[in-house]
Amino acid sequence: MNWLWAVGGLYLLYAAAMVLAHPKLIYPFGPDVFDAPGWTQAQVTDRAVSIAQWDGTDDVAVLFFMGNGGALAYFTYTLNAHVDAGRTVVAMEYPGGGGIPGKPSEAGLKADALATYDWLASQHDGPIVVHGYSMGTGIAQHVAAERAVFAIILDAPFVKMCELMTKAAWLPACYMPGVQKWNSAALVPQLNAPVLLQHGSADQLIPLRQGARLAALMQAEGLDVDFHAVPGATHSNLAGQPGYRDRIDRFLSDVLK
């Protein structure tokens, strides 16, 4: 019987340690600074949010939120899908990565995103589209739930990040206090814009079934959802797959015509 208490105690210690350590695990940002030609960088809003901006010729502005793996410099394939189409792009940079000082958190990133939207809306008269990749899909949906957007583009989204934590750490992360849960499912009833969702069939970090479940939740709420399972695409190469850009272009053309 004593060994059961010992095992239970060790498990509780492990759980407590993971609560303290999990922000470092879910925000593994890289140091590479974004310095692509033609982009301007600035700090905007009273929160001094760092952004990179491309001024396009189209009426559409895209507010882009990257994933948690690395820095904005690693997302040029996705950014260029909009740049090459002539759209204005504002990409939010995250504190703790890409040479941006600060400490990331779910609450902080979401607050920064709303402030960035408000700044963009004050600068841009045309439609605003939110586009998120991986962790950024949670931020994009948060903005779409709180602000008026014309369309939502989600690449490799999740239903709840804490579900992925549970599988990885063998802990009930969705029920543990102090865990940053990233619950996208809770945002679905607040969305009211058309959604394009692309997810790789070979994605091992966020499995395809996560995107399919999120699409089903959205459809159950009456949202217009265009869901694409991209054959053979992994989590890291989705944006480089044939048809990726074409699907975005068609979707936005249909939504904004």
From TrEMBL:
Cross-referenced InterPro entries: AB_hydrolase_fold, Peptidase_S9_cat
Keywords, sorted A to Z: Hydrolase
Swiss-Prot/TrEMBL GO biological process terms: proteolysis
Domain Peptidase S9 prolyl oligopeptidase catalytic span(s) in chain numbering: 112-241
Matches recorded under Pfam families: Peptidase_S9 (PF00326)
GO terms assigned for molecular function: serine-type peptidase activity
Superkingdom field: Bacteria
Protein name, as recorded: Alpha/beta hydrolase
